[in-house]
Amino acid sequence: MNRRNPFTPATFIALAVSVPAVALSLPPMRSLIEQSMVWHMVIQMPLLVLGGWLSMSAMSHTRASQLLTSWNRYGLTGFFTAQAIVAYWMLPLAVDRAVVLPQTDLLKVMTLLACGFMLKHSFERSPAVLQLFFVGYAVSMMTWLGVYFATTELRLCNAYSLQGQAEAGRGVVLLAWGLGCAWLVAAIRQVPGVAGVR
Amino acid sequence: MLKTFAASLFALLAGLAVVFIATDRGRAFTTEELRRAEVAREPRPIPDLPVLDAAGNIAGLRQRLAADDRVWIIDFIYTRCRSVCSSLGSVYQQLQRRILERGLQGQVGLLSVSFDPANDDARALQDYAARMRLNPAVWDVVSLASPDDRRRLLDSFGIMVVPAPLGEFEHNAALHIVDARLRLVRIMDYDAPDQALDAAVPAKR
Question: Which one of A38, A50, A70, A142 has the fewest beta carbons within 10 angstroms of its own beta carbon?
Answer without folding.
Answer: A70
